[in-house]
Amino acid sequence: MEADDQAIQTILIGLPEDIYVAVDSYDTAQEIWLRTEQMMRGSKIRAQVKKAKLFNEWEKFNSTRAESIESY
């Protein structure tokens, strides 16, 4: 029981506030860890999707020959 409490405290210390609020009500370190992992994975996936969209936009971004640098 004491080891689980120590694990919970260790996990909670390093979490961003939004995730901390979401997992603070769980009872065991394993529950907290699994939910945190799920939430963080979702954040990484969203970041990868956003990065891919921005990269695609950047690839399509170009100027025309008659376009001035200001309008570009």
Which stretches of 5+ consecutive residues score pLDDT under 50? none
Helix content: over 70%
E-strand count: 0
Whole-Å distance between the termini?
63 Å
Structural class: mainly alpha
Give the number of helices: 3
Number of domains: 1
The biggest sheet, with number of strands, parallel, antiparallel or mixed sense and barrel status, is: none
Oligomeric status: single chain
Helices and strands, in N-to-C order? HHH
What is the radius of gyration? 22 Å
Explain what the structure shows.
This protein is mainly alpha-helical. Helix 1 runs parallel beside helix 3 (29-60). It starts with a helix and ends in a 12-residue tail after the last helix. It has one domain (2-60). It is built from three helices and no strands.
Question: Care to give the gist of this entry?
Answer:
The chain is mainly α and 72 residues long.
Helix and strand arrangement:
Blueprint lengths: L1 H12 L3 H7 L5 H32 L12
Helix pairs in contact: 1-3
Keyword list:
single chain; 72 residues; mainly alpha; 3 helices; 71% helix
